[in-house]
Amino acid sequence: MRGVARARWVVCALSVALVASGCGGGGSSGGSGVVRASWGDPQNQLEPANTNEVQGGKVLDMIFRGLKRYDPRSGAAENMLADKIETSDQQNFTVTVKDGWTFSNGEKITSKSFVDAWNYAALVDNKQKNASFFAYVDGYDKVHPTSGTATAKTLSGLSVKDDRTFTVKLRTKFSTWPDTLGYVAYAPLPAAFFENHAAWLKKPVGNGPYLVDSYDKGSSMKLSKWDAYPGPDKAQNSGVELRVYTDNNTAYTDLQAGNLDLVDDIPSAQLKNVKNDLGDRYINQPAGIIQTLAFPMYDPAWSKSGLEKVRRGLSMAINRDQITDQIYRKTRTPATDWTSPALGDKGGYKAGLCGDACKYDATAAKKLIQDGGGLPGGRITLTSNVDTGSHRVWMDAVCNSINNALGNDRACTVNPIGTFADFRAQTTEQRMTNPFRSGWQMDYPLIQNFLQPLYYTDASSNYGKFSDPKFDNLVDEANAESSADKANAKFQDAEKILAEQMPAIPLWYQNGSAGYSERLSDVTLNPFSVPVYEQIKVG
Amino acid sequence: MPEATEGTATLPAAEEQAVPKSQGRSDGAKPRSLWSDAWRDLRRNPLFVASAVLILLLLVMTAFPSLFTDASPRDGNLQGAFLKDPEYGKVFSAEWLGYDGQGRSIWARLVYGARASVIVGVVVTAAVTLFGGLVGMLAGYFGGWLDSLLSRLTDIFAGIPFLLGAMVVLTSFDVRSVWVVSAALVFLGWTQIARVMRGSVISCKQADYVVAAKALGAGTGRILLRHILPNAVAPVIVVATIALGGYISAEATLSYLGIGLADPVVSWGIDVSAGKDQLRNAPHVLLFPALMVSITVLAFIMLGDAVRNALDPKLR
Fold first, then answer.
1. Which of A249, A396, A409 sits opposite B75 (nearest CB)?
2. Fewest CB within 10 A of the end CB: N or C in chain B?
3. Is cis: bond before B264, omega within 30 of 0?
4. Using the beta-carbon criterion (under 8 Å), do B274 and A396 form an inter-chain contact?
5. pLDDT tens, A80-92?
6. Which among A249, A273, A390 has the least Cβ separation from residue B281?
7. Angle, CA of B35, B39 and B42, to the nearest 5°
């Protein structure tokens, strides 16, 4: 009996705790002027150079400003903290930082803030996911050797001239390099980041229009306006509460019920009703996003020679038109290359580079797969997270399409993973043995960004570990071109290699879609399909 | 309880039923056992007849789905049949109950989905009854340290929340077939039966006929199987029959949550889950599989109720 009494005590203590935390969790929402927006947990701690996924990127975009910023409307790279970036040879750049910027803890932003941050990002010991973005800088091979330990602590290509200027020496010519500097990996970092790293991670200090107030994993992150923000794009609301949803349908229902102000991922099942429900509070616009199915090329079962036929065959077995028409109601466009129409001709987009391999042809698909030796193991599974993007639905449809083409209703099955963060962990740790979703939201509007980070040997987001020397060469050559047009042509040639090798099947170009409540105005999506939070007005 | 007047005629407790049984034999008259009494009651119970017919139908569906539909449950036609509305006039045709969000015939999916539900329900119930029954019988009959050990083991497993435990077990499997899901449910579900059996055995083992059998030198095995089991098993059967419906709904729940059965197995739970997102545009996608789960669970629970009424004279 004593055991029973004790157990009752435990239950009481637990219920008190639950009530207490329940009060703390739910009470404070919807303060005036605060935007309540849908979100998903980021994969990692929010270090700028260690975040290469969308959800973490949203926050970093709110709390950091870099040398450049992509115009929320046009996507063009414009100077933010950079006063000017000069070069005479496309290889040596002199960066001048604007005066008057500080971090939110008051620390002045100098050229050292950038150089230290970049050195930290590049150093192999720090295991930053975006380290390879610094591979263009001279000395990267010393601080981030492909194997073994670093022989230098800092990038030899970076040097601080004075408080406001530093120089960058690149490994090769890279004419459009300054345009990449709006990406969050290039953000400056305060001294506090290096001095007390743990405390910084708990409460990141940046230089953007918002401050992080608190973060409850799995629940929400609260950000408030930084009143003393020195930049031109001050927050027009008093703060943003990012709420974690594991199902975009729930988020949409909450929006309708008035419990949420902004949903930036309209579930496919609601696309039919969304105009009725929201009227002109529904945004649907092209964005720099492509969805692909990547193959685990690190697995010999998928990469051995001859399997490119199977990979191409699978691509041809997918009826993209049907899926984008019926399930996505044309908010996706069938992909015909590996980039995005949002780049425009100037950015290097060229339709149809995938050729026949992206056109649906069931008989040809079946033949190709048979010629290539059939599916590895006789069957495949598709893996994706299913908390966003209505991924479950298209995976089922793609599987059906493949099964129909092969005449085998058990050839393809889906493996849904509950949360984005979990899915990311599984792909980055290379635990996939079958095709998996690889969505790519551009970091900057250049064709280079759709190809190099994804398919270059050992690149930061090359989760399938595709490697092809011809592709690498073409990318290197393209980066060295002095004019954008010539560079784009080389990149497009590189895409043709992807069409042969098919390391990832292009599925469709994704539109940015969002809906918002009547409380909000001035809601827009940038070309990356991320809401421009700082412009949103409440009330 | 409609049979109340009839029931008062029979004896009040299960173990005493055995006495007239042995007497009956010596008299040479036709013996009326608990079981024949129960069967007589059941046949007259409309609840039993209705549920038995439904269950029979489900069993036929499980064994021969192609008798009910020509359509394939996995063959989707997005272009022509995406979320198509039901055509109730065309009874039992592929388009009868409409199509789901992948352009698959909902009727075909209902028919083929019966297999997973029925197999999980029956397999889990059988395994749980065997294993839980064995544990309960050993604990109840031998008592002492074995009882303490087995009862504590039962307590430990009973302490694990059923659904939560099943989730934890199932997430550690990559391929979740009917057998894996069944195993997970058995793993956590046997405790109820074990407790019922133990209680029942304890009350039986003090009965005169057991003492008599012991005095006559019957072995433990014979006592357990010939004297205790037949007299202690009635409550277990009642609990098991009612639980069967529970296991079917547990399977549907787990499949709905995405951690039960997985493609390419056709399961009502998976279909309910897929249908919930389309509720506003095409309610039939959710409605029919949900209805099917309800009808099936109801049928088994009704059966369990009827069996309990028949077997437990105290309830009359």
1. A409
2. N
3. yes
4. yes
5. 999 999 998 889 9
6. A273
7. 135
Nearest CA in chain A to B82: A326
Instruction: State the distance between the two ends of chain A, measured CA to CA, in whole angstroms.
Output: 59
Scan for tokens 């290889």, then name that residue: A91
Q: Which of B125, B110, B126, B127 is nearest to B57 (CA)?
A: B110
Domain ranges of chain B: 34-315
pTM as predicted: 0.80
**CB-based contact, B172 to chain A, within 8 Å:** no
Tokens representing B127 are 């395994």
Contacts of B277 in chain A (CB under 8 A): 249, 267-269, 390, 393
Q: Which of B82, B104, B258 sits opposite A326 (nearest CB)?
A: B82
- Whether residue B258 and residue A273 make contact (CB cut-off 8 A), yes or no, is no
- Beta carbons of B264 and A327 less than 8 Å apart: no
Axis-axis angle for helices B162-171, B229-256 (nearest 10): 60
* Phi, psi dihedrals of residue A217, rounded to the nearest 5°: -60, 130
DSSP 8-state code for residue A478: H
Residue type, A378: G
Q: Cα–Cα distance between A429 and A433 in angstroms, integer?
A: 11
The full length of chain A comes to 539
* Residues B159-209 pLDDT 10s: 999 888 998 899 888 778 899 999 999 999 999 999 999 999 999 888 898
Model confidence over B208-265: pLDDT tens digits? 988 899 899 888 888 988 889 988 888 899 899 889 999 999 999 999 988 888 878 8
The CATH classification number of B34-315 equals 1.10.3720.10
Q: Which residues are CB-neighbours of A314 under 8 A, at least 6 positions away?
A: A293, A365, A369, A380, A402, A435, A505
C-beta atoms surrounding B88 within 10 Å: 11
Q: Which two tokens stand for residue A17?
A: 């705790």
